[in-house]
Structure formats: C-alpha cells, structure tokens
TrEMBL record:
Mg(2+) 2 binds at D13, D138. It catalyses: Endonucleolytic cleavage to 5'-phosphomonoester. The lineage of its organism: Bacteria, Bacillati, Actinomycetota, Actinomycetes, Mycobacteriales. NCBIfam families: PRK00203.1. GO terms for cellular component: cytoplasm. Mg(2+) 1 binds at D13, E52, D74. InterPro entries: RNase_H, RNaseH-like_sf, RNaseH_domain, RNaseH_sf, RNaseHI. The gene is rnhA. It is found in: Cytoplasm. It is an enzyme of class 3 (hydrolase). SUPFAM superfamilies: Ribonuclease H-like. This is Ribonuclease H.
C-alpha cells in the first residue's frame, strides 16, 4: 500500500428526521491544507444508523489512492461496529450473537471494503461539543436531509 505520512482527517455525521424517515449524511475531508465537503441524502425511509454509516463510506470511496485515514464520528454504533463487532458478524454469517440478522449488512460490507483499501484509524467525538469539523459535518448532513425532503 502506497500512502502518505500525513493522514487524511475525516469528520462524519448522519441523521434522519423523523427516525426512520428521510435522512442525510455529511463528511469533511482535510489533507495537506485541502478541504472537501461532501453530503447527500435519502428521501425515502432510512435511519440515523444508515446515514451515520453512509458518511464514512462515501468519504472513503472518494479517496483516489490508498491513504492513512483518521475518521472522527460521533456514532458509537459506527465506531464499535467497524472496530469490534464486524469481524464476529462476518464469521457468524452476518448474524448477531443473538442469532438475528445484522441490520444494515449491505452498508457494513461496503464500509469493510472501503476500509480495506486504506489504513484507517477510528476516533469517537462527542456530538455538538464544539469540534469545528464535527459541527460542519452535522450542517452538511442537515443540508443533505433537507435536499432529500425537497425531493419528496
């Protein structure tokens, strides 16, 4: 894997109103003084968790070569899922420890594939705590949600 020493720093967020309902996701990517803002949304019934998962997927898939990446999320579901739970789910045929199908398995598989291309470290950040890029990711997710609602 060819990669740069300086990581791409990504902040992500996602949400729905109501949950489930139309949703949006946002991501802020920073690398060597460059900033890229991304957002999108789903006008149909989606969930907060699906939007929280979509944001890092879209950010990682936007990278054009293997990189060292630091992803900051305010979703413990996403961070714990990708760093702790996903390998067990995969080993158990995408069933939880209670033998129930894993929710959002399509997105977990896609996130795993996106992570496999890069060297990714995950960080949890408290939402709405004044971290500038987390706040911006929230604004972008809201923009994506509003555009999705406008398409209804």
């Amino acid at each position: 894997m060819t990669e740069t020493a300086e990581p791409v720093v990504i902040h992500t967020d996602g949400g729905c109103r109501p949950n489930p309902g139309p949703g949006g996701w946002g991501a802020v990517l920073r690398h060597r003084g460059h900033v890229r803002e991304m957002f999108g949304g789903e006008p149909g019934d989606t969930s907060n968790n699906r939007m929280e998962l979509t944001a890092p997927i879209m950010a990682l898939e936007a990278l054009t070569r293997p990189m060292t990446v630091h992803i900051h999320t305010d979703s413990t579901y996403v961070r714990s899922g990708i760093t702790k739970w996903v390998l067990g789910w995969e080993r158990n045929g995408w069933l939880t420890s209670a033998k129930q199908p894993v929710k959002n398995v399509d997105l977990w598989k896609r996130l795993q594939a996106a992570c496999a291309v890069h060297r990714v470290e995950w960080f949890w950040v408290k939402g709405h705590s004044g971290v500038a890029d987390n706040e911006l990711a929230d604004v972008l997710a809201t923009r994506g949600m509003e555009q999705a609602i406008a398409r209804l």
